[in-house]
Design a protein that fits this description.
The complex is a heterodimer. Chain A has helices spanning 24-30, 87-94, 104-117, 123-129, 140-156; strands at 3-9, 12-18, 50-53, 56-59, 72-74. Chain A contains five helices and five strands, in the order E-E-H-E-E-E-H-H-H-H. Classes of the chains: A alpha+beta, B alpha+beta. The A-B interface holds A 1, 3, 19-21, 23, 42-45, 47, 50, 53, 56-59, 61-64, 66-67, 110, 113, 129, 131-133 and B 1-6, 8, 29, 32-33, 36-37, 39-40, 49, 51, 53, 78, 101-105, 107-108, 190-191.
């Protein structure tokens, strides 16, 4: 039976109706239209569904939406400011640290948490931290370059996460969300 | 959709009361990394899902002179891994917690949940049995302590009663000069469950004579395996290469391992010989090694 739950996503609190077994992954995509969060394996191993919960990376495929109230939920949509990419995103673009980019939001959020915990990681520390994010296209070498570069950029220019954030892309004036013509 | 109901008790007593009330129709959920998968695969279909997530008093890490390390059951594996208290007093445990799955799972999964799940292919149980740890369980009639070597009964089965909740993990104070190691041997990818987990705890006197050896293997059978006859070969002896090899052979001979997607029984028998040896040698190298 559906129940209302209040979820704080990308800084904005919103009530949604959820079934008890709906995962946070289901709800972020269906209700919040945050398509950066993806299902890869459904069992917490691949990292495509990574979200930050109170700043910590977790698998949204293993979190029940009905139990997620009272926490800060952040997806990659919150990182850019309008058209200005976050330094981590910019580093990924500059190094072409992706091919199909399905895994990229997961890597970027994990990188954001890594660099908050350890601002100057060694390559081995990076590899260990992002070991749980899988890239089937094999962009790992470029991803490592991008993460190490991002560490340098963030040390030069620290970012804050406390910004006006957007819960649903279609509510943002810059995103003209049109359904595909049938 | 199923008629499952979520419940979020605010205290341990409330959780115990709900368990007692709903008995076999209720399932506890903590971090959810195991339970959500079981629910999705229809391995379980409880009528009530009792979340422990709002019970803040079960999140703590304390060290007490005399009794040792006390970890609240809802402490996440990630917090335990990063804890300066655990890193200082029982470093092998902190590093073992760091080997569980991946960073996301560690941020959600709890120490209590990991133990009560009793998955045979899990890292912390082998180390905790080697450290002679125990859990505190609370039921409607009070609390009791259960040593971990008695706690794990079979695949996904513990000696907890239906209306009991694990509230704390206690790791007793360890001797100051104790040496220990844990090797997580994986056969597939880095974040995989172990094919074999080998924990070694060694206590030697000043002359390098072994007073006590414990080796516990995880992921080879339904529950963590310790072969006391093989360990006895070390007591009062120096741990030479030959002696260590003999102990490893003793483990391989005494254990009947399982086959699964991470390795056949035959393969595990071969690797038990290797990993018992490696775990003891790694422990002997001292703290700098691991």
């Amino acid at each position: 039976m559906k129940k209302s739950v209040s979820l704080k996503v990308n800084g904005i609190e919103q009530d949604v109706m959820v079934e008890p077994l709906h995962t946070l992954l289901d709800v972020l995509r269906r209700e919040f239209k945050l398509f950066s969060v993806r299902e890869g394996c459904g069992v917490g191993m691949c990292g495509a569904c990574t979200v930050l919960i109170d700043g910590k990376p977790m698998s949204s495929c293993l979190l029940l939406a009905g139990l997620a109230s009272g926490h800060e939920i952040v997806t990659v949509e919150a990182l850019a400011e309008g058209n200005r990419l976050h330094p981590i995103q910019q580093a990924f673009v500059d190094h072409t640290a992706f091919q199909c980019s399905f895994c990229t939001p997961g890597f970027i959020l994990t990188t954001s948490a890594l660099l908050a915990e350890n601002p100057a990681p060694t390559p081995d520390e990076v590899k260990e931290y992002v070991a749980g994010n899988l890239c089937r296209c094999g962009s790992y070498v470029k991803i490592l370059d991008a993460v190490l570069d991002a560490a340098g950029r963030l040390q030069a220019e620290p970012q804050t996460v406390q910004r006006e954030a957007i819960a649903c892309p279609q509510r943002h004036p810059q995103h003209q969300w049109k359904s595909p013509t049938p | 959709m199923s008629a499952i109901e979520l419940r979020e008790p605010r205290s341990i007593d409330e959780a115990v009361a709900l368990l007692a009330q709903h008995a076999d129709q209720a399932k506890l959920i903590a971090g959810g990394t195991a339970v959500v998968i079981m629910l999705q695969n229809r391995l379980i279909s409880p009528a009530y899902l009792i979340s422990l997530g709002r019970i803040d008093d079960l999140r703590y890490i304390r060290y007490e002179r005399g009794t040792g390390l006390h970890i609240g059951a809802l402490t996440t594996i990630g917090d335990a891994q990063r804890s300066p208290i655990i890193r200082k007093h029982v470093p092998v445990l902190a590093s073992t917690f760091g080997k569980v799955a991946n960073v996301r799972v560690r941020n959600a999964a709890t120490v209590g949940g990991n133990l009560t799940e009793a998955d045979y292919a899990s890292d912390p149980p082998a180390v905790l049995v080697a450290l002679r740890a125990r859990v505190v369980a609370r039921g409607p009639n009070g609390t009791r302590e259960i040593p971990l070597n008695e706690f794990f009964q079979d695949f996904y089965e513990t000696s907890l009663a239906e209306d009991e909740v694990v509230t704390e993990l206690i790791v007793p104070e360890q001797p100051a000069r104790q040496l220990s190691s844990y090797i997580k041997y994986v056969t597939r990818s880095s974040e995989d469950r172990p094919c074999i987990g080998a924990a070694a705890v060694v206590n030697m006197d000043e002359d390098g004579v072994c007073q006590d050896l414990r080796v516990v293997l995880g992921a080879v059978a339904a529950t963590p395996q310790e072969v006391t006859t093989a360990e006895a070969l070390a007591h009062g002896q120096r741990l030479t290469d030959d002696r260590v090899a003999e102990i490893a052979e003793g483990y391989a001979a005494a254990i009947k391992p399982l086959s699964d997607m991470r390795g056949s029984a035959w393969y595990r028998t071969q690797m038990i010989k290797v990993l018992v040896r490696r775990a003891i040698k790694e422990a002997l190298q001292g703290p700098a090694a691991s």
